[in-house]
Amino acid sequence: MHMRRFFCTILLITNIFFIYVEKGWANEFMQETAKHAPKPQSPLLSPETTPEPLLQEEEEEVIWQGVSSSFALPFAEWDEETTERHWYDGLSGNLALGYPLLETPAANLPPNTTNGPTNNNLTATLSLKYSIIGNWFVSGTVYHYVDKEQQNPWNPDFTYVLGYSDWRPYTFSLLYSNYGGNRFSATDTQPVTTFQQGTWSFGWKFPITKPFIDWLSFTKEGSIGCQVDFNYTHEYFDLASIGNKYHHRTVSLGCKYAITGNWYINGTAFHYLDTTQRQPWNPDFTYGFGYFDWRPGTITLQYNNYSGNRWHDSDRAKDTGRFIDGSITLAYSFAF
Predict the structure, then answer these.
(1) Neighbouring-strand partners of residue 308
(2) Which pTM value belongs to this model?
(3) Contact 44/227 with Cβ under 8 angstroms?
(4) In this structure, what are the phi and psi dihedrals at residue 63, rounded to the nearest 5 degrees?
(5) pLDDT tens-digit readout, 205-228
């Protein structure tokens, strides 16, 4: 009991700490959220209503429930569903069209490079997610580039993500994501996928509760959910040396503000544990806004900017980090 109280107190302090340092904390979130491929990653925590303030004991209990339920493997529920479960149960997805605000020429990098700057190309995608058991899942996205000539080596034919992520507050997550230049057919210089160039992310979700939400929200029903992550990529491309380097590490803080209904704003700040690892296309922060509805049979409209955004404009690489370097995505979600 004392250990649980101690652990919950630490997490409460962490919650308050991140609220105060978010604006000046400069420098990465969920998901490898911004290296090259379009990634509509914002904190998965998005409560529809702002929770009422709780007593410390009640808050500790809620935190402990989230923490202790993380990474659960509910085999009992799986066994109960076996007789009624079809192979396609737990399968969902979306169809999307990504429209860049600005057309740009392809970048001049070595042919075997598997990550690089975002190039703007009208793109259609099909994403599928399969929930294996509980909140353990695997997902993949297939890409079609309208202008095939602008598909760079690091622009993937497909991407994939797997791991554990629970939308509920105070839960941990563990994800592996690969947004590199994956190909359906391997070549002499480019394999189907390079697993060691994917990113491992270990995160924790938390809501902004009263009284802080009252200071930050300008709508009565507004709510804010956040996630802090440690991200590790074993191998990555370094532009300065024109070769691969190892052990890319970042810490990130991402928050999503649900303004009213399904309208939202989100942002993610990135901190590079070794600043020499930050590439020109790696952002200090990413942001987006729009209308998002997770339910099947609905339409989502978003603006996202994953380009090389910098806290100081003078630090931006050429033709990156501007509003016009973002893109608009229109998506339709479905489930089987």
Answers:
(1) none
(2) 0.80
(3) yes
(4) -60, -45
(5) 999 988 888 899 988 889 999 999
